[in-house]
Amino acid sequence: MEPIRNRTKQLAKEFIEKGDPLGWFERLYETAAGDEKAVPWADMTVNPNLAEWLEREQITGTGKRAIVIGCGLGDDAEALSQLGFEVTAFDISPTAIAWCQKRFPDSAVTYQVADLFNVPATWQGGFDFVLESYTLQAMPKEVRDRAIPHVAALVKRAGSLLIICRGRNADQPAETVPFPLTREELGAFQNQGLHEVTFEDYYEKDTSARRFRVHHRRAEF
Ligand SMILES: C[S@@+](CC[C@H](N)C(=O)[O-])C[C@H]1O[C@@H](n2cnc3c(N)ncnc32)[C@H](O)[C@@H]1O
């Protein structure tokens, strides 16, 4: 896995340096040519940080709409669908979306190519549950600062946003992908009409990576 991670960091760096910070995702999926081992975040199962939260919070989705931002190969979207949500899952990479459709041909999830910075107007304020997992951390700071209002805009009144990302203290460096986030920058969601319900800061058992898992909610009125 290490050579793939290093190649990914190098690819991201090249694209960021040439001023195309979102261009490397499609290149990576395209080059992987259907081999998930070439996609460092593709565990081919639901993210355990999400699964654990859904179970702990006893989340059910019947009659509710969910959206998965930067859905990758689709496992988290499928998990939400299994809970009864009507799920839209989107990714900027056409190859990733085609891969999801191939993996889950009978899925109830609507997989769609879209860029978070330019989503259909009908999605604004349209979702009871918004999942952002590992996508903000794949963007350099100035890009994710701009992304935060676009993530928040998808959450409907009384709806929830769950963010799962790498975490760091403000005085720790974030030089390569994945760029861990700070608690302070995640505070920006509270300028977008959301309030923080829980903020969890922990070390993941299997990888010992430091994670933040943050649940925000939009007020009902
Ligand atoms: C690090 S991967 C994580 C994928 C998935 N969430 C997971 O946990 O396996 C980040 C994903 O976000 C997608 N992405 C990056 N920028 C995006 C944007 N502006 N709009 C939509 N998707 C984006 C990438 O193509 C990639 O699939």
Query: Beta-strand level of the residues, as a percent range?
Result: 25-35%
Question: What's the CATH topology label?
Answer: Rossmann fold
CATH A-level architecture? 3-Layer(aba) Sandwich
Helical segment count: 7
What's the total number of strands? 8
Main sheet, how many strands, which sense, barrel? 8 strands, mixed
Task: Name the overall outline.
Answer: globular
How would you characterize the overall build of this protein?
The structure is a single chain. It is globular, with a radius of gyration of 16 Å. The N and C termini lie far apart (47 Å). Helix 5 (94-103) links the parallel strand 2 and strand 3. Strands 1, 2, 3, 4, 5, 6, 7 and 8 form an eight-stranded mixed sheet that branches. The chain contains seven helices and eight strands. It has a single domain, classed as Vaccinia Virus protein VP39 (Rossmann fold, 3-Layer(aba) Sandwich), CATH 3.40.50.150. The protein is an alpha/beta fold. 31% of the residues lie in helices and 26% in strands. Bound molecules: S-adenosylmethionine (SAM).
Question: Can I get a quick summary?
Answer:
The protein has 221 residues and is α/β, with parallel strands linked by helices. It has seven helices and eight strands.
Main attributes?
221 residues, alpha/beta, Rossmann fold, 8-stranded mixed β-sheet, 31% helix, 26% strand, globular, binds S-adenosylmethionine
